[in-house]
From TrEMBL:
Pfam families: SGL. Residues 16-256 form the SMP-30/Gluconolactonase/LRE-like region domain. This is Gluconolaconase. Belongs to the SMP-30/CGR1 family. InterPro entries: 6-blade_b-propeller_TolB-like (IPR011042), SGL (IPR013658), SMP-30 (IPR005511). It comes from the Bacteria.
Length: 292
């Protein structure tokens, strides 16, 4: 386990921190507290942080342009104006199923947005993974229990996703021009030992940086599924990483206090904090999502 220099970006504890992303044009990091319906906005240069109440559970966003974001929420995709926070429903997603909510999501280099849903109580097989492509949502993979680790190789030819409940990370061949599958998912690795596969992001070398929920660490895997590094995180339930800062060499990591009783939280005093790890990574900027 590597102990890299680590600082606290936010000590406002998230019930379920998730969905971090970074806008290189404004040096701004964004992430969510899913359970509390909050969106965090951090100006990394100044250290200032704003928290926006969304009025609904939401889990991820994609940048559309300098003025707008596409928010992945429990009942659909919303266009959000950055200036005033106004949100407009673009299209529903499982809005007729109150038993599910959104979870992990990430934008493919083509601008296609992959989005995962799951049962609010993590019911087996209640979720799915969808693609938002050319203004329409289509289901890619059904019967997912806890969708996580959605990320893409630098060339866009491979997509990854995990079902945390099955402890499996899958790789699927993609059309790089569309971000849509051109083959069936295959098992890349099976997680064993402490913790579970949570959020992931791919770096410029195609390595997969995975937050290991319940194990206080980030694991780095090769495109062949070999574990290369493990970095310590000062909270047990690390949930998702994102590359941030100049050169995209730092790692922002969200965490959660979900399902912790008073004794567990006392033993894990930084549960739910958001961290910055000096990871010496070769990160990649997140692509913008395309509406059409």
């Amino acid at each position: 386990m590597e102990q890299v220099p680590t600082s606290v970006l936010s000590d406002d504890p998230c019930h379920l921190g998730e969905g971090p992303t970074y806008d290189v044009t404004t040096d701004t990091a964004w992430w969510f507290d899913i359970r509390e319906g909050r969106l965090f906005e951090a100006q990394l240069g100044s250290g200032s942080i704003r928290v926006h109440a969304l009025g609904r559970m939401a889990s991820a966003l994609g940048r559309i342009d300098a003025e707008r974001q596409l928010i992945v929420a429990e009942d659909g995709l919303y266009i959000r104006k950055i200036a005033d926070g106004a949100m407009r429903l673009l299209c529903p997603l499982e809005a007729d199923n109150p038993a599910t909510r959104s979870n992990d999501a990430r934008v493919h280099p083509s601008g296609t947005f992959w989005i995962g849903t799951m049962g609010r109580k993590a019911e087996a097989g209640a979720g799915a993974i969808y693609a938002f492509h050319h203004g329409e949502i289509s289901m890619l993979f059904p019967r997912i229990s806890i969708p996580n680790s959605i990320c893409f190789s630098p060339d866009g030819a491979t997509g990854y996703f995990a079902d945390t409940a099955r402890a499996v990370l899958y790789a699927v061949p993609l059309n790089p021009a569309t971000g849509l599958p051109r083959g069936e998912p295959e098992v890349l690795l099976r997680h064993t030992g402490v913790g579970g596969l949570d959020g992931s992001v791919c770096d410029a070398d195609g390595q997969i940086w995975n937050a290991c929920w319940g194990a206080s660490r980030i694991d780095v895997y090769s495109p062949q599924g070999e574990r290369l590094r493990s970095l310590s995180v000062p909270a047990k339930q690390a949930s998702c990483p994102a590359f941030v800062g100049p050169g995209l060499s730092r790692l922002l990591v969200t965490s959660a206090w979900q399902d912790m009783d008073a004794a567990a939280r006392a033993a894990d005093p930084q549960a739910g904090y958001t961290f910055l790890l000096e990871a010496t990574a070769r990160g990649r900027a997140e692509p913008d999502v395309k509406l059409a």
